[in-house]
Amino acid sequence: MPHFLPLFSRYLSTVFPDSPSNIATFRRPQSSLHQSNSILDNSPPFPPSRLQVLHSSNASSQDEESEASLLLTSLPSLPFSNTSSKEGEDDDEEEEDIFHPNIPGSIPVSELLPLGALRISKKPREGTIKMPGRPRNFSQLNALESAERSRLFDTIDKFRELNISEDISLPQLVVVGDQSSGKSSLLEGLTEISFPVASDLCTRFATQIVLRRTEEEENVKASIIPGVESSDDEELKAQLLGFQVSLPESDFGPESFAKILDDAAVCMGIPKPGFSGEETPDKRFSGDILKIELSGPQHPHLTIVDVPGLFHNSTKFQTDEDRELIRNLIQTYIQDPRTIIMAVMDGRNNLANQEVFKMAREVDPEGKRTVGIITKCDAVAAGDEQGVIQIASNKIEVLHHGWFVVKNRSTQEIRDGVTIQQRHQKEKEFFKKAPWSRLNREHIGIEKLKPFLGHLLYEHVRDEFPKLVDEINKLVSETEEALQKLGAARNTATEQRQYLTRIANEYDRRVTDCLDAKLREVVSINSPLKIRTHIQNMNEEFSTRIQALGHTRCFKDIKGHDDHKGYDSRLRESYFERVTHPEPADIYEWIRNTYKNSRGPELPGMVNPNAVIEMFREQSSNWKNVARHHVSRVVDTVTKFNEELFHKVVTDENVRKKLRVSLSKTTGDTILSAYKQLDQLVEDESCGILQTVNDYFAHTLSTTRSERVLARLNLITLTKSEDGQDTRSLDISAIMNAVSLTNEDQATYDIHDILKSYYSISLKRFTDNVILQVIERQLLGKEGPIRLLKSEYISGLEEAELGNIAREDWQVASSRRELKSRLDRARSAQEAASMISV
């Protein structure tokens, strides 16, 4: 880390006050942890943050013995070289300190061990510097990096305790393997916790083991992190959070660990390790996590999650259902892209038969986040070692981080009381022997695996932390928005009325905007919210349709032709294809027959007024159907508008449904009133007396009559004058004959012209009244179905009905609690993250 260089320079200046200015130069090694994927004949893993300090004397560059390399790292057991030890070579050979003889006041380099723990063998191999297994104390550099690691890991642990993993995946190390793979013994070696014998046969929950390096005395804490399901049950959650165990690490052995496992199982409500299989528990596995935290100066910074081991053969203690549950639990952990998978393999078994590696391969096909660990190498049959060595050399199953081999305590050794420290020594001695000694030492044994995992997890957490912060900030924003959409809590009548009043006011405002065509948002042309546009178009269509389809028989022009003026004849032809044709179809014939059949006591040549009224009623009998069709279309448009606007304004689905039900009767009444208003308009126009004071009627009738006279005069035959010019003779008798009609014909034409003139006025009046009185007033007006949701309506609700509509149901209340809980978690995580600078 570059920011350590000035610190280290100041340290050297303090230790070597009289040293030349060129006593030390710094360079970053080229090796990288991410460049290594083999433990045989490949470069060992090497953290990118490591610095190499070259101590150079005034001697010549050829004098190799005058140079020494000082390695600074938080993983002191990782060397520079890729040289494997020779078979049987002693790792613990005597070592000597190197110091600079030409610098006054210099001290032996061995005294610099706190800075990097430099040791040089009497038999140095070219390019190799040996490292001790553990630094003697905390140096300034190690303390800085240790503090940073501690803060990072503690923050991630805090995230996990907050259950932020419900919403955001967290970086973690998860160890998976078969029940017989030696997984628990491996964890023993890594954590130096003595696990109960065969504990993974009965573990029915995940265990998170947290190691923290502190200068305080060694102690152990056990607690339970509630899972997702438990977090929804406040009583159970409180019970789980109340599980707390604390004891000195010296008192933490297999018996106390087993008791903690038993007590945790009881607290989670699942069978204890002694479960016989004869009972039928409510649940057999738990999503809760048992957290075991060990702190002390001898521990590295490391967090590992242990999940129950896979098994293949069912028994009365472990059923097929259990096997599937465990497999699903493992799958849940390893499919998370932020999980580093520690896949454990029994060296005696064929790799092809290891289900855990098949599962890891499915979620991590490139092997970038899988670390292979081979256990029970000491139990491999003679002659089979080469196959295991091939796997360990990363030549069979290629993993980005390669493979490690370990030797754990056997069951017999546990019974014989072999300690964890003795276990480490036996492991060293075993791997010095052939053929295991050919493997790269950097991937052999717990003492190499532990710092590797610590550094791997640290780098992983450090790389992911900025992304985590971004995701947490996004989670806070999204949760706040979701809570805002739910609105304030609605437990009292006052809160409920305020809630519905806010909705009603917003709804009324948006209705006004839509009717005024002042939309504040961009919507598609077909959106129901463009109600004004849709209704204007429908009104014009109604006007066209009623002109074309309103009359039962077509009026005639002066020449006796059907008068299609003012409407689309094609529309009428289409309409008449679907209805029965009136008989007779010719309007003159129909008027003549009606005239004959309705004569009363009136004198010859006079028309019975009642006959004209009846003929108008029949001629306008289509108005009602055409108008009802138009009103029906507008009602549908209003209904769709209401549905769309309700969805936008009333976000709570249950409240929306209940409001619609509450308003449904009133809505139906207002629509019924609109149809009644339409029926009244039809009756006013066609069922009462024919009445108008519009000058258009008299003017049109007079004009039509004059045109008829002129048309008949135009039929007089032209005669030649004496000078040969065409002229009309003023034959009075011919004129009289031309303009004179029989009483029946005169009555027929008069009735036709009266009907036609009045029909035109009445139709325009009816069309306007339908639009103004039915559509605008009854459907779109203040009392119409489009404006029923208003503050006055809310004010008039009784408390019982108010509560029925606005009271939060259990789903909304649950959603609110969940969102509040998520927001609290996210904000707490946000606060914790703000204390870290990466």
Descriptors for this entry?
single chain; 838 residues; alpha/beta; Four Helix Bundle (Hemerythrin (Met), subunit A); three-stranded antiparallel sheet; 16 strands; 47% helix; 9% strand; Dynamin; microtubule binding; GTP-binding
In summary, what is this structure?
Keywords: Coiled coil, GTP-binding, Nucleotide-binding. This protein is an alpha/beta fold.
Explained architecture:
Keywords: Coiled coil, GTP-binding, Nucleotide-binding. Residues 28-103 are annotated as: Disordered. Residues 167-466 form the Dynamin-type G domain. Residues 88-97 have a biased composition (Acidic residues). There is one protein chain. The protein has 838 residues and is α/β, with parallel strands linked by helices. It has a domain at 496-689 and 766-807: Up-down Bundle (Four Helix Bundle (Hemerythrin (Met), subunit A)). The chain has 26 helices and 16 strands. The strands form four sheets. It has a nine-stranded mixed β-sheet, sandwiched between helices. The protein has a three-stranded antiparallel β-sheet with strand order 1-2-3, with no helix packed on it. Strands 4-5 form a two-stranded antiparallel sheet. It is elongated, with a radius of gyration of 48 Å.
